[in-house]
Amino acid sequence: MKYQNIFVYSVLAIGLLSIPSLLDSIYGQTNATQQNQTAVQQAQNQTAVQQAQNQTAVQQGQALSPDTQVLLTTLDIPELKDNLMDAKLAIVEGNTEEAITSVTDVENQLLTLQPQPKFTADFKNIKGSIAKADLNKALDDLSKVQTELLKAETEIFKAGLTNPQLMDQYGGNGGGGDDGGDDGGDDGGDDGGDEP
Description:
mainly alpha; 7 helices; rod-shaped
């Protein structure tokens, strides 16, 4: 029986000595589980934030007026503004044929849109005014259309403050045009080189 008591006491001593290492492994497993749960929660939070940003972008796109949405997705607004300015300059210079051609070109671009912007109907009045030689009215009506384009462009810029993706889309509609600067190419002029 003496050996049995020694055996029991030995097992108890070993058991007592192994309790701290057992507690350490339990504590480690608990921390690992908590870290996994934290990582999962962070991933879920990031997903929720991304979904909220996407929803905000969609809502901001929907906040744009229908005219602006159509112009943003299909046309180059700066090019339209330039064409309208060319038409106004042609009117001022007395070149009514060029003015009517410029106005018709812009009108044709707008007629292809679905839905058409509200100011598309104004182009018939503008062409009629030019044909009747009522150039003041034609200039006023062209200015009204330019104002509508500026409003649409401003609306895009305001929405772009909170949603840079809109500005990327706006820039993708012809933002790489000619800036009027020298592109470094040969202009065919005399560069002051050797003379024959």
